[in-house]
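Re: that backbone. Tokens:
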């Protein structure tokens, strides 16, 4: 494969992740949600055409605009084939024929289309799981496997769920609109959950060749900024979510070694943290804190800020972080929150209490068998107590469960450390 061909294919992959969701949102606004399957096929065809065309004629000056224009032309042809009147088509599509490199919509109009699609996917007619799955699929172009992993279900079950959800989407009762009042708040909550999941998938990738998928993380930040700044969706909880994502993203450059291995917080070079992105995070956290509202994202952002302001790991204010986790457990008493609180307890010198807390989490036996994080943390905590038998058992179990190559390396390093003694 030539270098030019490889570059073209890499660009297509990048654009598919960043542009296909926008294209689906915009074209669905043109053609209607009842055409969602055809719109998805049309967008897929556009990328296939781009790959073929660009290999021969070269990459256009504005690849994203080229893709949007070609997809728009395909959508218009589709409507014509379905016997719409030409003048009506043009009024609905809102375009006049232009050169390939011209922009289809202004950025604000594309943002509005994405927001409308997010809210359509988060319609109360769907279950919470379907809302998350549809948004990840239609807005962020996640594969079935990626969505299944995020929601901890099988690929087959997720495929069936998406088919059923899209059939409901096509029935015509769900509008591409930004809702108001309580409906807006209810759906915003799901949108935030989706962006949180999207960022987490990128922050610790399950792909063998990518520990961090920065494209996913930055896409989550971009969309979080849309809902934070859009006049119809401004909300202090959105500010808190955006602050949280920025504060975590600021650590990207310190999280991967030169040998492409994951570096844990304790060993990270804090000089590599992105100071500008940290300041953005602090800005939105301050803005979120100005309102008399507190959410899970407020507290998690405050925890991330505590880590960010510490000069080094040793000077971390664990007492303050523990008090934040105490507050967080009252708002979101999820198993993962208690697991993270246990780690903080251990850093505060209470490792035995930390182990007791993990073992007291509801359904812990099942969690240890199915989620590597619980066995991994227990293995780490028992290592700190020099109980090598239990530590080794839990670490080996965690390594057998996780599909993340980066985490497998860390677990193996701990196993090697125990067996060498």
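Recovered sequence:
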């Amino acid at each position: 494969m030539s270098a030019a061909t490889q570059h073209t294919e890499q660009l297509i992959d990048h654009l598919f992740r960043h542009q296909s969701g926008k294209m689906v949102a915009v074209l669905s606004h043109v053609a209607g949600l009842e055409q969602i399957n055809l719109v998805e096929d049309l967008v897929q065809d556009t990328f296939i055409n781009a790959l073929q065309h660009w290999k021969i004629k070269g990459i256009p000056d504005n690849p994203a605009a080229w893709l949007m224009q070609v997809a728009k032309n395909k959508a218009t042809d589709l409507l014509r084939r379905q016997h719409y009147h030409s003048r009506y088509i043009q009024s609905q599509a809102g375009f006049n024929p232009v050169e390939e490199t011209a922009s289809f919509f202004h950025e604000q109009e594309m943002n509005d289309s994405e927001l409308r699609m997010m809210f359509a996917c988060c319609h109360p007619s769907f279950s919470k799981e379907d809302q998350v799955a549809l948004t990840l699929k239609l807005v962020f172009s996640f594969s079935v496997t990626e969505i299944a992993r995020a929601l901890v279900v099988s690929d087959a079950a997720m495929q069936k769920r998406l088919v059923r959800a899209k059939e409901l989407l096509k029935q015509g009762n769900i509008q591409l609109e930004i809702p108001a009042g309580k409906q807006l708040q209810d759906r915003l909550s799901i949108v935030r959950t989706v962006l949180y999941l999207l960022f987490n998938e990128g922050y610790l990738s399950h792909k063998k060749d990518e520990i961090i998928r920065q494209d996913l993380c930055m896409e989550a930040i971009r969309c979080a900024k849309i809902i934070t700044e859009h006049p119809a969706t401004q909300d202090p909880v959105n500010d808190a979510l955006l602050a949280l994502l920025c504060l975590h993203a600021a650590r990207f450059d310190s999280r991967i070694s030169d040998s492409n291995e994951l570096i844990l917080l304790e060993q990270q070079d804090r000089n590599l943290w992105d100071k500008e992105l940290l300041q953005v995070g602090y800005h939105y956290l301050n803005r979120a804190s100005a309102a008399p509202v507190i959410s899970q994202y407020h507290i998690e952002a405050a925890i991330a800020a505590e880590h960010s302001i510490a000069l080094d790991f040793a000077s971390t204010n664990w007492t303050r972080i523990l008090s934040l986790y105490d507050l967080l457990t009252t708002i979101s008493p999820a198993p993962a929150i208690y697991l993270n609180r246990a780690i903080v307890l251990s850093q505060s010198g209470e490792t035995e209490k930390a182990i007791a807390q993990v073992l007291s989490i509801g359904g812990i036996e099942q969690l240890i068998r199915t989620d590597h994080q619980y066995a991994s943390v227990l293995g780490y905590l028992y290592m700190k107590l020099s109980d090598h038998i239990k530590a080794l058992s839990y670490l080996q179990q965690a390594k057998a469960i996780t599909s993340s190559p980066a985490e497998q390396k860390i677990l193996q390093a701990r196993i090697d450390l125990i067996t060498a003694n």
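Residues 211 and 258 are 12 Å apart (CA to CA). The chain has a mean pLDDT of 86.
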